[in-house]
Design goal:
binds magnesium ion; 9 helices; 6 strands; alpha/beta; binds 3-methylbut-3-enyl trihydrogen diphosphate; 262 residues; Undecaprenyl pyrophosphate synthetase; globular
C-alpha cells in the first residue's frame, strides 16, 4: 500500500482572488449585429471592456491578466475584418499604453508576432519596453496565439536543445517542458473566463489551464463590464480547488487562509 505523502497543493486553492485570470473575449460580432452595426463596431466597443477589466483587476488585486485578442485561426476571417482588427490593435496600443503605464501595468504580447504588420510589431516592442519595469498587473495580450502552437514551439525548441546535446531527453519532465512555453515565469491561470455564450476553449492556453477554474457567461464581450467581471471573480472565490485531492485534505492544508485573506 502506498504510504500517505504530505499534501502539497500546486497553487493557492483557498485564495478568494485568482492570481491569474485568462479571458476569451468573445461575442463582439454578435453584439454589433444585434444593433444593426458592422462586426467591426463590436471590436471597437470591446476595447472599452478591456479597459474596464484591466482597471478592475488592479482594484481587486489580480496579478496577471491574459486576454485572447486574436487566435491563429482568426486569419481565416474575411480580409477586411482582419485588416480592421490589425488597425484597431495599432490604435489601441497608441491610445492605451500611456494609461497602462500610469497604472503600473506591464504589457506583454504572447503569440507568433512575426506574422503581424511591421508597424504593429514595432508598436508592441515599444509598449513592452516602456512598461517592462511595472509590476502592479501583468497584462498579457494573446495575439496570433494558439494553445497548440505554444506546445509545438516548446517541443521544437526542446528537440533542438536535445539534438545539440544540451539536454538529455530523459530529463524532460513537466517542469522542464513548461519552461519552454509562453510566459514560463508566471503562474498558470487560476480562472479561465469565456464571454459570448460558447462553452469551448478555442485553442486558448491549453497546457497552462489544465487546472484552471472555468467560467462561461452569455454576456457578449462589449457588454462585459466591471460588475460582470466582479461576478466572475466572486464566483471563483466560492469554489474549492482540489487538484485531485479530497475536499477534507484541501481543508486541512490551510483551513484559516480562506477566511483570513481580504
Ligand atoms: C471575438 O469576438 C473577437 C475576435 C475573435 C477577434 P468575435 O468577433 O468572435 O464575435 P462573435 O463570436 O462573432 O460574436
Ligand atoms: C476565440 O474566439 C478567439 C478570440 C476571442 C480572440 P472565436 O470567435 O475565434 O472562437 P470560435 O471560432 O467561436 O471557436
Ligand atoms: Mg467569436
Amino acid at each position: 500500500m502506498k504510504t500517505a505523502t504530505p499534501v502539497v497543493l500546486p497553487s493557492d486553492p483557498d485564495g478568494r482572488t485568482p492570481r491569474h485570470v485568462a479571458i476569451i473575449m468573445d461575442g463582439n460580432g454578435r453584439w454589433a449585429k444585434q444593433r444593426g452595426l458592422p462586426r467591426t463596431a463590436g471590436h471597437r466597443e470591446g476595447v472599452k471592456s478591456v479597459r474596464a477589466v484591466v482597471e478592475e483587476s488592479v482594484r481587486r488585486g489580480v496579478q496577471i491578466l491574459t486576454l485572447f485578442a486574436f487566435s491563429s485561426e482568426n486569419w481565416q476571417r474575411p480580409r477586411s475584418e482582419v485588416n480592421i482588427l490589425m488597425e484597431l490593435f495599432i490604435s489601441a496600443l497608441r491610445s492605451e499604453v500611456r494609461r497602462l503605464h500610469e497604472s503600473q501595468v506591464r504589457l506583454r504580447v504572447i503569440g507568433e508576432r512575426a506574422a503581424f504588420p511591421e508597424k504593429l510589431q514595432h508598436r508592441i516592442a515599444e509598449a513592452e519596453a516602456l512598461t517592462a519595469e511595472n509590476s502592479r498587473l501583468n497584462l498579457q495580450v494573446a495575439a496570433n496565439y494558439g494553445g497548440r502552437w505554444d506546445i509545438m514551439q516548446a517541443a521544437r525548441r526542446l528537440a533542438a536543445e536535445a539534438r545539440a546535446g544540451r539536454i538529455d531527453p530523459e530529463e524532460i519532465d513537466e517542469a522542464l517542458f513548461s519552461g519552454y512555453l509562453s510566459f514560463p515565469d508566471l503562474p498558470e491561470p487560476d480562472l479561465f473566463i469565456r464571454t459570448g455564450g460558447e462553452q469551448r476553449l478555442s485553442n486558448f492556453v491549453l497546457w497552462q489551464s489544465a487546472y484552471a477554474e472555468l467560467y462561461f457567461t452569455d454576456t457578449l464581450w462589449p457588454a462585459f463590464d466591471e460588475a460582470a467581471y466582479g461576478q466572475a471573480l466572486d464566483d471563483y472565490g466560492r469554489r474549492q480547488r482540489r487538484f485531485g485531492l479530497t475536499g477534507d485534505q484541501v481543508e486541512s492544508v490551510a483551513p484559516v487562509s480562506r477566511y483570513a485573506r481580504g
